[in-house]
Amino acid sequence: MKIGITCYPTYGGSGAIAAELGIQLSQRGHQVHFISYALPFRLPTFRQDLYFHQVETMSYPLFEHTPYTIPLAAKMADVTQAEGLDVLHVHYAIPHAVSAFLAREAVEGQVKVLTTLHGTDITLVGTDPSLRSITRLAINMSDQVTAVSSYLEQRTRETFHPNRPIRVIPNFVDSARFRPGQEEARHGFARPGERILLHLSNFRPVKRVTDVIRIFAKVRQEVPAKLLMVGDGVERPTAQYLARELNIEKHVLFLSRQDDIPGLMKVADLFLLPSEQESFGLAALEAMSCGVPVIASQVGGLPEVIEDGVSGFLYPVGDVEGMAEGALRVLMNEPFHRRLAQAARQRVLDHFDASHIVPQYEALYRDLLEY
Ligand code: GMT
Q: Nearest to residue 34, comparing CAs of 59, 12, 15?
């Protein structure tokens, strides 16, 4: 099949999944065309049957803000016609599903539209009164809609009362790339005997990165440890300031944005994700695939990913004390840590490996082509 994929190309879970899906589909013999304003961050620059079409925006003295939704729709329509696309698969409803709807109108229905909802497109952006009705329209006008967790499917139904069913297709991970690693890689980050904790996100307020720092400060009072903070965003200066205030700055490494995420995850003993909200928590899943147990908030779709007490531990949002205690329970008992690590990896292999999930998207594309 010929699939067009649109996503935010910047650092974030929806862009990561869109890129990983494109790679998987191209490996399975489909032709994949990414349409966005920049190359998605996880895409290789070249791979057979993987193409990138850049959306050019136009500035004009009359436009105070450069429009994107319309040029994106125009590009989607052009690529559909030039390449004979079967499906436009858009990730994150706003504005991508609106552009896809316009593109389908422009090519007189020659292409089908699949919208995958990821999280804040429903829970934050879409529910803003200024965007609510257009988000509902975008959902209703798609030929099929998927959500990345049952939690998100339910939130979407309750918030938008869509006139169509929403299918749950969970996020996935390539467990061959995200796999447990070797001891030697740890030496670049920690001294022998030190434990390594990891956080990865786009450092937005919803990630509660200051909780990460506070949890680590408590853990370090009991065990020698390093904290790797991977990613960047608005909350980074606040987190750095807090690390200085708590006198742990020497032990917290702010690594900014990194390309080799599997390489970093492999070195960790524990992954921290104390988010305010998380419709799925892709970073937690990737850590689990590397055999890293997770300490996270009991919120949104996270309980669908992490089995509390089996592959990690879940606590109420903001329960820094509980999360630190949980982290210490895991880190101070090596056989227990090993059991959780194995269970985390096994959960990914049983339920979230690309080989289980990508065929679900392929089946959906085929259904779309048939009706
Ligand atoms: O919705 C967002 O915050 C952005 C989005 C992204 O692009 O990072 O994250 C969401 O989608 C991810 C991939 O499906 C999920 O793993 C994240 O849980 C989800 N973020 C939130 O719900 C806050």
A: 15
What span, in angstroms and rounded, lies between the C-alpha atoms of 354 and 20? 9
Ligand 1 atom with least separation from CA of 301: 18
Query: Domains of the chain (ranges plus CATH)?
Result: 2-172+353-370 (3.40.50.2000), 183-352 (3.40.50.2000)
- Condensed to tens digits (0 to 9), the pLDDT of residues 268-322 reads 999 999 999 999 999 999 999 999 999 999 999 999 999 999 999 999 999 999 9
- Number of Cβ within 10 Å of residue 237's Cβ equals 10
pLDDT of 356: 98
- This prediction has a pTM of 0.96
| Tokens linked to 173 | 């991970």
297 lines ligand 1 (CB under 6 A): no
Closest atom of ligand 1 to CA, residue 7: 7
- The residue written with tokens 């896809």 in the block is 100
pLDDT score at 139: 96
Query: Which two three-digit tokens encode residue 154?
Result: 């339910």
Strand order from edge to edge, sheet including 31-36: 50-54, 31-36, 2-6, 87-91, 112-117, 144-147, 167-168
Is the pLDDT at 188 greater than 80, yes or no?
A: yes
Residue 171, ligand 1, Cβ within 6 A? yes
pLDDT digits (tens, 9 = 90+) for 219-250: 999 999 999 999 999 999 999 999 999 999 99
- By CB atoms closer than 10 A (0-12, 13-18, 19+), residue 317 is middle
Q: Residue 101: name the closest of 135, 162, 142 by CA.
A: 142
With CA atoms as reference, report the closest residue to 203 among 282, 304, 100, 275.
Answer: 275
Token representation of residue 174: 């390539």
Our answer on whether the CB atom of 278 is closer than 6 Å to any ligand 1 atom is yes
Is the separation of the CB atoms in 15 and 91 below 8 Å?
yes
| Rounded CA Rg of the chain | 21
Kindly list the distances between the CA atom of residue 323 and the CA atoms of 26, 193, 314, 331, in Å, as whole numbers in the listed order.
40, 22, 8, 12
Q: Is the CB of 4 under 6 A from ligand 1?
A: no
